[in-house]
Amino acid sequence: MSTKPTLLLLSATAILLTQTAHAAPKPCEELKAEIAAKLDEKGVKGYEITAVENDKVAEKGDGAKIIGSCDGGTKKLTYLRK
Prior knowledge:
- The structure is a single chain.
- The protein has 3 helices and 3 strands, in the order H-H-E-H-E-E.
- The protein has 82 residues and is of the alpha+beta class.
- The longest helix is centred in the N-terminal third of the chain and has 21 residues.
- Pfam families: DUF1161.
- This is DUF1161 domain-containing protein.
- It comes from Pelomonas parva.
């Protein structure tokens, strides 16, 4: 078997698995921990990640950016630099 078709098949499989993983609903605390770990790994300091009910996001008005959705789409994760 040639390496190009094998590589193409592996790439397509990886993309499909990634799409499925992103579509799966996650609990907010789990997603917050994953994002915080990545930020800490990159040396980011002075931030706050908060889970906010969808209808309360606009009311916060603190300049936080929405960085994800959790709890089956019922909440948004917001990121704010301190």
